[in-house]
Amino acid sequence: AAVPAGVLALLLGALxxxxxxxxxxxxxxxxxxxxxxxxxxxxxxxxxxxxxxDVATLQRMxxxxxxxxxxxxxxxxxxxxxxxxxxxxxCHSRTFQAEACFSQIRDGLRTxxxxxxxVLELLPAHAGLVETLQLDAANLSxxxxxxxxxxxxxTVTYPTEHRGPLPAFSSRFHHQVGGFFILANFQxxxxxxxxxxxxxxxx
Length: 203
Known about the structure:
Blueprint: H1 5-17, H2 28-32, H3 35-66, H4 75-78, H5 98-122, H6 127-151, H7 172-202
Helix pairs in contact: 1-3, 1-5, 1-6, 1-7, 3-6, 3-7, 5-6, 5-7
């Protein structure tokens, strides 16, 4: 079965954005020359690209099935749904913190793993793709945790408010719009992770 884009992208995103400044105090130049680390980066760059593609496939399905295609037309409805973008501020260049970025990616993948349940309910005919995406997200989160441990980094556990239950959708339409924004947010999350991984692979 094809791997859902969302999950792969998320998982990859977590790996991609992991700050690589410190490896037991090693400078980035030394770390970037490590063959195992480079293999990890390139494999997950491809993995992230695959996940992004699967998420895009689900976005097209939501567009075709519910005629929900343009984000700007749904912003007013979004305000009522309580669906926020998973934070990744620790992964941006100005505030780059290796341990914190890795932790945010890991936690973000877990959040999207749960959020995809709402998409699964909307697209029962494509349950296989959504479930594969959930599995990929879980696996990528585990992979990131393992890489963090291999690098000797200490992870941070963030408050659980970002991983709370999905909002109770008041109508079928709100559920559809909620699914639309879960996928849109997941795609952005993955794109950030992809850029981070690509940047690290070029060092």
